[in-house]
Structures are given as structure tokens and as C-alpha cells.
UniProtKB/TrEMBL annotation:
Name of this protein: Penicillin-binding protein
Domain Beta-lactamase-related: 32-349
Signal peptide span: 1-22
Record key words, sorted: Membrane, Signal, Transmembrane, Transmembrane helix
Domain of life: Bacteria
Organism: Psychrobacillus vulpis
Coiled coil feature spans: none
Membrane-spanning intervals of the chain: 376-396, 408-427, 447-469
């Protein structure tokens, strides 16, 4: 009997690892095939993907090129977009654990020179409010001070000065409004408390501790590591972008890292480490404000509390890059996806890829790849062309007419001029974003909108001139 039991145990011990390895090999093949199809479908020039599962690197691969033509490697630098926020939050939580910051203290305690208008709201903005985007500072106000391309050690202070005297539009602590301003203020608080620049603090206290030696938080350091700007998208086609790197935007969008370094951060997120004790790590990854269904926003994280599907993650984008960081501690895996192309109309592409990788790792099956959709660009282009043809036709008719209905043609001309003046303000209101943001993240659509404005203005002014000339001739 003992021999039979020993044989059974030996068989289990031998076969189980083989079956686990077989599953992993299958998943690796699926991921490779899936990524190649997704990259081709979404026309992404350069990609780096790294996955940790059960304490080991189960997959790490790179595809394509940077904007200078060099190959993407595991040490290629990508801007992280809003994946920067969890790293900034980690720095804050470290200071909280050290007793330098209290989560529920007013920011006035740490930034006495920064002022904001409460608009009769009662609560002060707290550190927790900034982390969870419940400060009452609107998304629009935050975007006004983003993508400014400020450079140098004083860039964060410069941006905070531009934000000074901002008006709140909600009671602090009550409404989630995703705003870059919140993490800009957190970076300024770090600078005031530590007497270091944000970049210096992140380097000495966060990146060095995690052995993330190729992760940087300022433009000069990025250049030293041969950082290359990414690509913007025109109808899906990648076009090399101008350099958008913004030192003042580092705490919420412009930390730059590599897949090798992000693996070390993922390992910390899965296993813990010396940066935070278990108590503060739990707080760091805890849900704070409800968003929808089982989704919450935490202290720099998007969090799913769905039963049997709990995870935390964050996506990120700059005008020329997109990233996805995903962590599932229950199922003991995490991954980082770094890409070097972006457009507002392509915001779902890396989301689809992220969900595809999740499906392969959890269900061991090949997911579908949704098709690209450039409907927004095509609609804008068609409207622009149709309007141009219509206006040329109307101007031709107006010029040839001997007798015209002056009031009617004047009204149409004036309305065209008014629409040309008000079109961009209307769009910024509808998208709840400044024009600079729209132009940075959707340059193809923005160009067509500018052409539309020019066409409307040209039609209105030209029509008024023709009407005036005809009126004089009649007199």
C-alpha cells in the first residue's frame, strides 16, 4: 500500500509541473500570435510587453521601431501617461507612512501659498481628495495646465502658479473628476516637504529602492537615456510627433520607463516590499470612490471589486504614447504594455489589447481583435469637403445673380462668420477640454476643424463683400 501511495505521489509531483508548463507554453504562443495581429490591425510602430505570473517572468517581447528607426528593446524608454499617477501616489504613501503627510489634512498645511476659490463650498481639499480626484477641481481646469511643455527644475512651480486661484465646481470629497491638476499639486507638496525637486525625490526614494535604474522623471534625464518621441496617428497611420515631453506633467503623465524597469514595479505590486508596510500597501491599493458597477477609483488606481475578478490597473496616454498596467494579486499575475502611438480616436486600442491579454492568461483562449474605427476623422473630412463644395457653389450663384434678396444673403453671411468664431469654443465645451488638448490628442480631426473655420469665415466675409458691391452697383 505504501508503495502504491509513493508511486501516486511521484506521478503527481512529476506530471503537475509538466501540465503547468504546457499551459504556460500554450499561453505564450497565444499571446505572441495575438499581439502580432493586434499590432498589425492598430498600426502601432513600437510595442513592449512584459508579464509576471506566479513570481516568474512568463513573457517578455518587443515589436517594431522607435521614431528614429531604432528597434524597440526591453530597455527602450516610453512615456507612461497616467500610469505615472500610481508612482506619484506611491511617493505620497511613503511620506504618509513616515509621518510627513496626513491623508486627511488640508493641503493648506503643505502648500500655504497655493490658493483656490471654494465658491461657498465648506470642505478644504485634502491629500486624499487629490489622490482620488475628488478635490473639486474640474477636468477642464486641469487640462488647461497640461501639455505646456515646460522644462527645468522649476517647471512644477510654474504650472502650479498658472493653476493658482482656480475655482472649485464641486464640494471637495464628494465628486470624482479626473484632473491632472490633482497630481500636479501632489508633486508640489512632495517638493515643499522634502526640499527636493519631484524628480530628485522619485529618483532617490522610489526608483532607486525598486532598482528601476532606467526610469526618469525629467526631460534631460530622458534624453540621457536616448528617449525618442513617439508617433501621432492620422487616420491610423503613424506620423512622427513633435516632442511633447513636459516636466511639469511628469507627476501625472510624463514619467518615462522601460518594460524591464516596470517588471520590478510589478513585482513590488504583487509581492510587496520595503517601500510600504502591509498596512499602508493595503491602503495604497484600496478603493476610495465609486465609479460604476463594481469599479472604483482609489489612491491613484482604478479598481475592480467584482467577486472572483478583483484587480487594479491604470491606463495612460500622452499625445504620442499609450500604456496599460494591470495587476491581479488573487491570480498572481501582472503585466505592462507600452506603445508609442496615440490619437483620441484610438483610445480603446490598448484597452482591447489589455483585455485580450487578460483573457489569454485567465481563460487560455484566443480573443477577438475589434477592428479599427476612424469614424470621427472621416465624418469631419466629409463634412469639410461637402461644406467647401456647397460654399463655392453658393458664392458662384451669388456672384451671377443680378437681383438678390439682400436680407437673406446678409443673414447667411453673418451666421457663417458667427459660426466660424464660435465653432471651436463650442467644441471645447462639448468635449470638456481646451483646444490645445484637442489639437494635441486628435491632430487630424483638429486640422479639419480649423479648415472648416476658415471656410466658414471665408464664405461669410466674401459674401458680404459681393453683396455690398452689388448694392452699390444698383445705387
Amino acid at each position: 500500500m505504501k508503495k502504491v501511495m509513493l508511486c501516486l505521489i511521484l506521478v503527481i509531483v512529476t506530471i503537475l509541473p509538466l501540465s503547468v508548463n504546457a499551459v504556460r507554453n500554450d499561453q505564450t504562443i497565444l499571446i505572441e500570435e495575438y499581439m502580432e495581429k493586434a499590432i498589425q490591425e492598430y498600426q502601432i510602430p513600437g510595442v513592449s510587453l512584459a508579464i509576471i505570473k506566479d513570481g516568474e517572468i512568463m513573457f517578455q517581447e518587443n515589436w517594431g521601431i522607435q521614431s528614429d528607426g531604432s528597434r524597440v528593446t526591453t530597455d527602450t524608454l516610453f512615456t507612461l501617461g497616467s500610469v505615472s499617477k500610481p508612482l506619484t501616489s506611491l511617493a505620497i504613501m511613503r511620506l504618509v507612512e513616515q509621518g510627513e503627510i496626513e491623508l486627511d489634512h488640508s493641503i493648506d498645511t503643505y502648500l500655504p501659498t497655493f490658493t483656490y476659490h471654494k465658491n461657498d463650498y465648506k470642505n478644504d481639499i485634502t491629500i486624499r481628495d487629490l489622490l482620488a480626484h475628488t478635490s473639486g477641481i474640474s477636468s477642464f481646469e486641469g487640462l488647461k495646465i497640461s501639455e505646456l511643455k515646460l522644462r527645468g527644475e522649476d517647471s512644477i512651480n510654474e504650472a502650479v502658479e498658472k493653476l493658482n486661484n482656480v475655482k472649485l465646481n464641486h464640494e471637495p470629497g464628494e465628486v470624482h473628476q479626473y484632473s491632472p491638476a490633482n497630481y500636479l499639486l501632489l508633486a508640489s507638496i512632495i517638493e515643499h516637504i522634502t526640499n527636493k525637486t519631484f524628480s530628485e525625490y522619485m529618483e532617490s526614494e522610489i526608483f532607486s529602492t525598486l532598482d528601476m535604474n532606467n526610469t526618469v522623471s525629467n526631460y534631460e534625464a530622458a534624453l540621457d537615456l536616448e528617449y525618442q518621441p513617439g508617433f501621432q496617428s492620422w487616420f491610423g497611420r503613424p506620423i512622427k510627433s513633435e516632442n511633447f515631453f513636459d516636466d511639469s506633467g511628469v507627476p501625472y503623465g510624463y514619467i518615462a520607463s522601460t518594460s524591464n524597469d516596470m517588471l520590478k514595479y510589478i513585482d513590488f505590486l504583487l509581492e510587496g516590499g520595503e517601500l510600504l508596510t502591509d498596512q499602508y500597501f493595503e491602503l495604497y491599493t484600496s478603493p476610495q470612490v465609486w465609479r460604476k458597477e463594481d469599479m472604483y477609483y482609489g489612491l491613484g488606481w482604478r479598481i475592480s471589486t467584482k467577486k472572483n475578478d478583483e484587480f487594479f490597473f491604470h491606463g495612460g496616454e500622452t499625445p504620442d504614447s499609450r500604456a496599460e498596467l494591470f495587476i491581479n494579486r488573487q491570480k498572481n499575475y501582472g503585466f505592462i504594455l507600452l506603445t508609442n502611438k496615440n490619437n483620441f480616436s484610438e483610445v480603446l486600442h490598448t484597452f482591447y489589447i489589455r483585455e485580450g491579454i487578460k483573457t489569454i492568461l485567465e481563460d487560455n483562449r484566443m480573443p477577438d481583435i475589434p477592428k479599427s474605427n476612424y469614424q470621427m476623422q472621416w465624418i469631419t473630412l466629409i463634412v469639410t469637403c461637402a461644406l467647401a463644395i456647397l460654399i463655392l457653389f453658393n458664392l458662384f450663384r451669388l456672384k451671377r445673380k443680378v437681383i438678390i434678396h439682400v436680407k437673406y444673403w446678409n443673414m447667411v453671411a453673418v451666421l457663417s462668420v458667427i459660426l466660424s468664431i464660435s465653432l471651436i469654443p463650442i467644441l471645447t465645451y462639448l468635449f470638456d477640454a481646451p483646444w490645445r488638448t484637442i489639437y494635441s490628442f486628435a491632430p487630424d480631426t483638429a486640422i479639419f476643424i480649423r479648415i472648416l473655420v476658415g471656410i466658414l469665415a471665408f464664405y461669410g466675409i466674401t459674401s458680404l463683400i459681393i453683396i455690398n458691391v452689388k448694392r452699390r452697383k444698383r445705387v
